[in-house]
Amino acid sequence: MELISVIVPCYNEQESLPLFYREITAVTDGMKEKYYNENISELAFEFIFVNDGSKDDTLKLLRELAQSDKRVRYISFSRNFGKEAAMLAGLEKSRGDYCVILDADLQHPPKLIPQMYDYVRSGEYDCAATRRISRKGEPKALSFFARSFYKIINGISQTHIVDGAQDFRFMTRQMVNAILDMPEKNRFSKGIFSWVGFETKFIEVENTERAAGKTTWNFKKLFLYSLDGIFAFSTAPLWLSLIMGIIFIILALAMVIKTLIFREPMEGYPVVIALVCLIGGIQLFCMGVSGQYISKMYTEIKGRPSYIIKETEETRRNISNVRKNFPKGLK
Ligand code: UDP
Ligand code: MG
After folding, report:
1. Cα gap 157→145, rounded to integer Å
2. Is the four-CA dihedral 26, 198, 293, 286 of positive or negative sign?
3. How many whole angstroms from 161 Cα to the centroid of ligand 1?
4. Torsion sign over Cα 309, 314, 318, 323
5. Ligand 1: which atom is nearest the Cα of residue 9?
6. Nearest alpha carbon, ligand 1 atom 18
């Protein structure tokens, strides 16, 4: 028997969740039957939903699902910790021989899971992921920005991040364990998936619109996220400060030498102001770059947990058992 853990981060997904549940169970039931009938493998599934501090009725829905379907397990955070933390929590709770992570809004079509399973089961790949080949329906500026980001990070980082690679991933337990072995708190999954290595099969997909609800991403969030990626997977910006420093020392020396040799007068205060501003600006820039790494170290050193769990289907069951045994009136 092979167990597949389906991990779903959810933030304000009350509209998408019922649609998602219907679709994912249809796919997994179909898979189970098909592989059993064809004598390929006996499959079982567990669905791990991570409620990332939703402000709507997501948690209520998850409680109901866990009640009615024993395969459903959930983790509910004490507040919003972000999708990275939600994915990590799901992977940590999973027990499957394989794990698949996908979004609740059906932008990652569950019908691709059988194909992903086939790739990984073949033994040729440890992971199957989707890669977006078109950016249809996305604002032009955002596409341009995303493309530039991939160019920059692949130019300066040793970890290759595939353009358009999504978080929709089907992985072996071995790869999941490797990911869980990475203790960092500043998690940039796109980099982590690639850093751990293993063979990944990319399935090319078109962009799919959200089934319901709305995205929580905006330009500012994406920009900060991409900076996170760069600082987490490259130390090139630190080199940049050093190189700029060296260039300016050489320039300054050249200017001094030139005036000494040609006995030119150094005059005109606008020149001085311009130089002071330039050098000052470069120093601040370099300090900012180092500051970014120091702040990352600061968060790592504090060692705070990536998320805090408020409720799971198990704690919920225990609470209701205690309540059942309470004398009336006290409930
Ligand atoms: N999500 C999350 N925590 C957050 C933001 C998003 O768990 O703080 C989940 C969300 O519920 C969805 C997935 O991450 O299942 C992707 O989010 P979204 O659809 O907003 O992003 P997009 O698809 O637009 O990149
Ligand atoms: Mg989405």
Report:
1. 18
2. negative
3. 20
4. positive
5. 7
6. 215
- Mapping DSSP to helix (H, G, I), strand (E, B) and coil, where does residue 265 land? coil
- Residues near 152 by Cβ (< 8 Å), separated by ≥ 6? 230
Does the predicted TM-score (pTM) go above 0.90?
Answer: no
Distance set, CA 257 to CA 3, 246, 274, 277 (Å):
73, 16, 20, 22
Give distance in angstroms: CA of 215 to centre of ligand 2.
6
Residue whose CB lies within 8 A of the most ligand 1 atoms, among 216, 218, 219, 222, for a mutation test: 216
| Closest residue to atom 22 of ligand 1, CA basis | 215
Q: What is the pLDDT along the chain (331 residues), one digit of tens a residue?
A: 899 999 999 999 999 999 999 999 999 999 989 888 888 888 999 999 999 999 999 999 999 999 999 999 999 999 999 999 999 999 999 999 999 999 999 989 999 999 999 999 998 999 999 998 877 767 788 788 888 888 888 888 888 888 888 899 999 999 999 999 998 887 888 889 988 989 999 998 887 777 777 777 778 888 888 888 888 878 788 888 878 888 888 887 787 787 778 777 666 776 777 778 788 888 888 888 888 888 888 888 888 889 999 999 888 877 777 777 766 665 5
